[in-house]
Design goal:
The complex is a heterodimer of chains A (83) and B (170). Chain A is α+β, with helices and mostly antiparallel strands. Chain A has two helices and two strands. Chain A is elongated. Chain B has a single domain, classed as Jelly Rolls (Sandwich), CATH 2.60.120. Chain B is built from no helices and twelve strands. In chain B, the strands form two sheets. Chain B has an eight-stranded antiparallel β-sheet, with no helix packed on it. In chain B, strand 9 and strand 10 form a beta hairpin. Chain B is globular, with a radius of gyration of 15 Å. The interface between A and B is medium-sized, with 25 and 30 residues.
Chain lengths: 83, 170
């Protein structure tokens, strides 16, 4: 049986003791579609962030190695060391 | 003087939920909203992300200035996203949760809304996890509803709590 996804909805226009103030409601088809799109977007963002972090780490490693060896740095390498 | 008053607290039951919505928020001009979360998700990772949308938005990204870090590195930058912080994932220490505070400043404004976010995960391991950020969001009007939403295909887990506070200034 497929998992039923739900959301918790708090309707603040209802009184504190009103049973309709806090309800667990199954997602609509549109909300499930939105959730699936978010998952795709999240994965793309994760890949982008990881690639950017790795590129920066690589530049720093290269810059450190060149400094130790007394070699000139590229503009991008220098930018990782000097703000 | 700022006076903080609780509007509502909800606790997630067994089975978890994909989102938590506060609707029909009363309007108090010149006041802030504070969302306080203690959350954990079932994402297959140490940490996952939680998003915050207002007024029934179904997506969208916003400019963020952030600083984030874990046990081995710290990163600061600019991004376009809709983060409200982090949540412990299924690969973090069992029974640990992430504490998050999301301030929504002057929420009755009709201009660009500013949110300030502090989020730190409890992990009881060597890897500490932190996210802090400020984002600007054009809501098109006063905030009347807030939705906290998982960022992936995970769910917010049992025993997670979310509280909504009003902060009024005398």
């Amino acid at each position: 049986m497929a998992e039923i996804l739900t959301k918790l909805v708090v309707d603040l226009s209802k009184g504190k003791n009103d049973p309709l103030r806090v309800q667990s409601i199954p997602l609509t088809a549109d909300e499930i579609t939105e959730r699936e799109a978010m998952a795709v977007e999240a994965e793309a963002q994760r890949v982008t962030d990881e690639a950017a972090a790795q590129a920066l780490a690589d530049l720093k490693t290269s810059a450190r190695a060149k400094l130790v060896a007394g070699e000139p740095l590229t503009e991008a390498e220098a930018a990782t060391l000097v703000i | 003087m700022a006076v903080k008053s609780l509007i509502e607290t909800v606790t997630v039951g067994a089975g978890g939920v994909t989102s938590i919505v506060f609707s029909n928020i009363a309007q108090e001009a010149g006041s802030d909203l504070l969302v306080v979360c203690s959350t954990r998700s079932n994402a297959a990772s140490v940490v996952s992300n939680i998003r915050l949308y207002v007024n029934g938005e179904t997506g969208g990204t916003y400019p963020i200035v952030y600083i984030t870090g874990n046990g081995s590195s710290v990163t600061a930058g600019l991004s376009d996203y809709s983060f409200a912080g982090r949540m412990n994932g299924a690969n973090s220490t069992a029974g640990t949760f992430t504490n998050t505070e999301a301030f929504i400043y002057n929420y009755t404004t009709t201009g660009v809304l500013t949110m300030g976010i502090n989020s730190a995960a409890e992990n009881n391991a060597t890897e500490g996890l932190l996210y802090m950020g400020v984002q600007g969001e054009n809501t098109g009007g006063p905030v009347t509803s807030i939705r906290l939403q998982t960022s992936d295909s995970d769910t917010i887990q049992h025993h997670s709590t979310v509280s909504l506070y009003l902060i009024k200034y005398d």
